[in-house]
Structure formats: structure tokens, C-alpha cells
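Q: I have 217 residues here and want to know how they pack in 3D. Can you give me a structure?
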Amino acid sequence: MGKRTQAPQRHRWITHAGRAIYGLCASVGAVVLVASLTPLDSWWATRLAGPWNDPGGDVLIVLGGSLLDDGQVGGSSYWRCIYGAKAYRDGGFRHMVITGGGKDAKPIALAMQEFMVHLGVPGGAIETETKANSTRENALFTQPLIARMDGRKVLLTSDYHMFRAYRVFRKAGIDVTPRPFPDVRKRAGALRGRWPAFIDLMVESVKIGYYEAHGWI
């Protein structure tokens, strides 16, 4: 009797487990399709970016991004440099502050500074902050540098990052004007770039929730 009872129970357990796995796979597949075949990424990044008016000013604050193992700028940092150099040339800025550290490697701010100089930004106009390892630390650790610089401060970072970054700086008492650039929106233009962009949006949304829970934005 015991063995006869156990067999149906085992069968039901296997059936339930199979349905759960099937449902999970179907859900993941649906998310992949939506992220890959719809303008979700661009819409989401646009919402997080805020206004797109490319403001000029006196001090351009550029937030560090990814860093490769060999000490070179990674993908997100590369585009922040490209758009940062363009903003410096077009926006009438007198100073640039690049912020970003590195726990076990060359600080990303220094790698970005070298690249910015190659892109035509005068080395004497750039100051770096090399200790920050988070967006909140970007704001807190650049505050002493920015406080002694007169004029309008403009914050430049990726479109999907601007929502959190702008609010972190304002929460830290730093009056900045946002200047996002198309990071996710650029990648979402190609089919193969949409899923990685979607992952970045998901991770960033979790970070926004974390920062809100801690009262940092």
C-alpha cells in the first residue's frame, strides 16, 4: 500500500515541477521577445533620462563607468568620454570634473582623463576624483571640488543612469543640471543590442529602488 501511495505522489510532484519549469521558461521567453522586438528599451531609457536639451554651463561633471582589466575605458565609460568631450567643446565649459575610482585597478577617472585629452579636452581643464565606487560616492566625493568652482554645474551620464544620478547629486546638496546622452537608446537601435540594454535597465531599476529605500535620492 505504501509503495502504491508513493508512486502517484511522486508522479504529481514531477508533473507540478515540470509545469513550473515550463511556465518559467515561457515567461523568460516572453520577456526576451518583448525586449528584443518592441521599443521598450528606448521608451524606458527616455523616461529615466529626463529632459533632452543639451544645456551648456561652466563645470561639466562626468561620471565614470566601466573599466577593462587592462586599465582602459570600458563601453559605458567610452561613450561618456565621447559625449563629454563633445559637450565640453559645444557647451562653453571652463572646467571638467571626472569622478570614479577602482578597488583593485587604475581609477576609471584617470583612464577617462587620458582619453578625454586625446579627444581634445585641455588637460589643465580636467580635475579628477578617484575614490568613488558608487553613484552616491560620486556625489559626496566631488562635492569639495565642485564647491570651489563658480558657475553652472552640468551633470553628464548615460540616459538610463541619469534618473538616479541627478537625484543623488541634488540630495547631496549639489545643484546640477542634467545632460543625458543616448546610451541605451543608441544600443536599442540594433537588434543584438536590445537584450543587453534591457539587462542594464533592469539592474538600474533595482538600484533605484535600493537608493530610494536608503533615502539617498
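Q: Anything worth noting?
A: The chain is about 60% helix and 10% strand. The chain has two domains: 2-37, 46-213.
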